[in-house]
Amino acid sequence: MKIYFANGLFSQADAEFNARVVAKLRAMYPLVEVYLPQENASINDKNAYADSLMIAKADTDKVLASDLLIAVLDGPTIDNGVASEIGVAYQAHIPILGLYTDSRRLGATNQQKLDALQEVAENQFHYLNLYTTGLIKLNGKILTSVDDLLAAVREYDDEARL
């Protein structure tokens, strides 16, 4: 099985998070091949040069060659590249697992937080684009922890069950 791991990769925090989660995937599922774009120096070494066509072709080819897309949804908004990769995977009928760990999703039963929704600029919850999340839900699911994500991979391939 081949997995494409989609997340922002330009900050140290994102790069380290990506590497840590992918290391766990590789350790847990040694027969699964995980593509992590930040490891592709031909398009992501920012000291070198890669134009938009090179980046689009390289990443799209890898998405289309995958059996599963993992998409990290955290951040102020879903990363633009990740949203594009979700669209490509959806159109190609590739299952998608979204990872959404933002703590602002919590408190849906807290009446004060619900009441605050009636006041301008007092939304206590984080917003994710509904079109993008809908594409994921039509062809996969959204999980709220790395542990749940790691366990969910097992559902998508016999090799991962070993």
Automatic annotation (TrEMBL):
Domain of life: Bacteria
InterPro entries the record matches: 2'-dNMP_N-hydrolase, Nucleoside_deoxyribTrfase
SUPFAM superfamilies: N-(deoxy)ribosyltransferase-like
Cited Pfam families: Nuc_deoxyrib_tr
Gene3D superfamilies assigned: 3.40.50.450
A GO molecular function held by the record: 5-hydroxymethyl-dUMP N-hydrolase activity
Ranges in coiled-coil conformation: none
GO biological process: deoxyribonucleoside monophosphate catabolic process
Protein name from the UniProt record: Nucleoside 2-deoxyribosyltransferase
Organism for this UniProt entry: Schleiferilactobacillus shenzhenensis LY-73
